[in-house]
Amino acid sequence: MRAFAILGAAPILAAFGLIATPALAGQAVTLRADTANANGIVTLGDLFDGAGQAAGVPVATRQGATVALNANVVQMAARRAGLEWANAEGLRTIVVHGGPALASASGSVAAKGNVSVLTYARNLSAGEIVQPSDLVYAKVAAASPDTPTDADQVIGQAAKRPLREGAVVQARDIGAAMVIKAGDIVTVTYDAGGVSLSLQGKAMSAAGVGEPLAVQNTSSKKVVQTLVTGPGEAVVGPAADQLKSTARSTRYAAR
Questions:
Q1: How many angstroms separate the first and last alpha carbons of the chain?
Q2: Which partner from 20, 98, 134, 177 sits 20 to 30 angstroms from 38, CA to CA?
Q3: Region(s) of the chain under CATH 3.90.1210.10
């Protein structure tokens, strides 16, 4: 009776594609150097060279300038279509863009080919601090000169505007986290030759650590240019010059 029930269910299972079939070796494919898509429907042909008859199989939709695809999901979709992608590079995310290449605003391209770039793993609101878990490396066809290559350059920075999941990280979209707002009372310190002086003033704008800030003396109304060292704190004089020198050396070494 049990055997009959199982056999009788076979046509139903087959109708839903649930009958187990022998595993077959798929056709080997390689990820395209330029994973681009023009019409918004990302297909296996947009992703892989050698997709053959499976080239038209849809994988995802792209509504913005780019879309980030989970590499494991793409690999399974390819396998279902009879393709085998080994993912020898160990990619976690594949970014598909809507044009022939990713270029800088001036039109120049810094690097081409299988370029690994940083992308956002989730949507970020303006002012949010970028955490290590918010970043993931992805493969794109080209990277602009404005694209940071080191996650340490991005972690701890704040989003200057809303940033979308899957978007390539651009230096112009992030900046130092604002630790002082316009109108805040700031303690300005001067240290030199064993002499230490401090005064309180009003911040004329918002600023992050390491950024310049104009502070107005609340007594004399004079404005002094300072360098922010923390929430409600800034320095002038030799300490500020030393911090500026250190920042320049760090930027030069990172190039």
A1: 74
A2: 134
A3: 111-176
Q: How much is the pTM?
A: 0.41
> Where are the domain boundaries for CATH 2.30.30.760 in the chain?
178-254
Is the torsion defined by CA of 107, 111, 117, 118 positive or negative? negative
User: In this structure, are residues 115 and 80 in contact, taking their beta carbons and an 8 Å threshold?
Assistant: no
The domain defined by 178-254 folds into SH3 type barrels. (2.30.30)
Q: How far apart are CA 203 and CA 232, in angstroms?
A: 9
In whole angstroms, what is the distance from residue 208 CA to residue 251 CA?
A: 17
What whole-number distance in Å separates Cα of residue 43 and Cα of residue 55? 6
Give the pLDDT confidence of 45-77 residue by residue, as tens digits. 999 999 999 888 888 887 767 777 888 888 888
Distance, in Å, from the CA atom of 213 to the CA atom of 228, rounded to the nearest integer, reads: 7
d(CA 91, CA 168): 15
